[in-house]
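Quick one - first record:
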Amino acid sequence: MHIPPAARIGIIAVACISPFLFPSVITAILAVCAAFIFPPIAIVIGMLTDLLYEPTGYLPFASIFGLIICVSVFFVRSFLKTRIM
């Protein structure tokens, strides 16, 4: 399935703005959707969420979650590309 470039940019933009506007569950869902387009964006959204909401000295859970999403989406994408082609 081909997603138009304008829709890709829109999904990534909404995912980057989501920590400011939406609850954490919606932000996580949008991060996963954006990660299927560009996997490192999940790490960026996780770091942004940690910078906004985590107090100093705590474990950066959102960044770790973003890293897990990035790695898993990378493997899923590579698996799907080899299976489809």
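second record:
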Amino acid sequence: MSEKIYDNRLPIRETLRDMSVDDIVVFPAEKTSVLRATASNVGLEMGREYKTRTNREERVVRVVRTA
């Protein structure tokens, strides 16, 4: 399991597509709405599962690819 910080230069969709099972990517909290919608769409299109967890204190959202 590896944890990476989101690179703002890359599209969210591309970042999610490049994730392997058990990878974690940390996004800024400001991306929450578009991030959750994109994770849902990419998961449906590619037959994958993603879980998101918000940390309000750190102001980040962690995305884990679970399948």
